[in-house]
Design a protein that fits this description.
Chain A is mainly beta. Chain A is built from no helices and eleven strands. In chain A, the strands form two sheets. In chain A, strands 2, 4, 5, 9, 10 and 11 form a six-stranded mixed sheet that branches. Chain A has a five-stranded antiparallel sheet with strand order 1-3-8-7-6, with no helix packed on it. The chains are: A mainly beta, B mainly beta.
């Protein structure tokens, strides 16, 4: 069974700080997606990374796919309270179903 | 509709009762997914439909769970003889073609089994 492990599970930081969230697996994924979920809502796609070593930027968010396509990271620069939420990575496994990591809950304090 | 619609948004039921959860995907989306999310946790895959067929039912927790999709559109997730451990948010998502594409999620059904 392919698993995606995220770390840390919970992060509480002050507005303006930087942070990195990790998504790791022992298996290779053809692509990885990152979602953000706010309370009472479904997850919303932020980005998809496909190529090993790929880096994508979305304003203050930087996403990287590992060279071996087994891991990914999300770096947020100068975090804002609006970044608060549950961050989830997801990948298509060998059975062609999209599986999700356990999530990182981020709280950005004003 | 404009987005994925799930109903009901909240369901409280007694242990042992059956429940039906409904999902209306985005029009034209051929793939539909059901996930379960326990409080503050990640998403647990339940089942995936491509059209009306379910290539992978391996995520269904037990034979009390079943799902169907008709007309390549609406899907229903049925839980029979509910147990307290079934309490969770049940999320539905759809995508244009299949796995690996952008998923559009509904807001979920919060199921509470007393």
């Amino acid at each position: 069974t392919q698993l995606l492990e995220q770390s840390p599970q919970f992060l509480s930081i002050q507005e303006g700080e930087n942070l990195t969230v990790y998504c790791n697996s022992s298996s290779v994924f053809s692509s990885l997606q990152w979602y953000r979920q706010e309370p009472g809502e479904g997850p919303v796609l932020l980005v998809t990374v496909v190529t090993g070593g790929e880096v994508k930027k979305l304003k203050r968010l930087t996403f990287q796919f590992g060279d071996a396509r087994k891991d990914s990271s999300l770096h947020i620069t100068a975090a804002q309270p609006g970044d608060t939420g549950l961050y989830l990575c997801a990948g298509v496994d060998s059975s062609y179903k999209l599986i999700f990591g356990s999530g990182t809950r981020l709280l950005v304090r004003p | 509709g404009a987005g994925v619609s799930q109903s009901p948004s909240n369901k409280v039921t007694e242990k042992g009762k059956d429940v039906e959860l409904r999902c209306d995907p985005i029009s034209g989306h051929t793939a539909l997914y059901w996930y379960r999310q326990s409080l503050g946790q990640g998403l647990e895959f339940l089942i995936y439909f491509q059209g009306n067929s379910a290539p992978d039912k391996s995520g269904l927790p037990s034979d009390r769970f079943s799902a169907e999709r008709t007309g390549g559109s609406v899907s229903t997730l049925t839980i029979q003889r509910t147990q307290q451990e079934d309490s969770a948010v049940y999320l539905c998502a759809s995508s244009l073609a299949g796995p690996g594409e952008k998923l559009f999620f509904g807001s979920g059904t919060q199921l509470s089994v007393l």
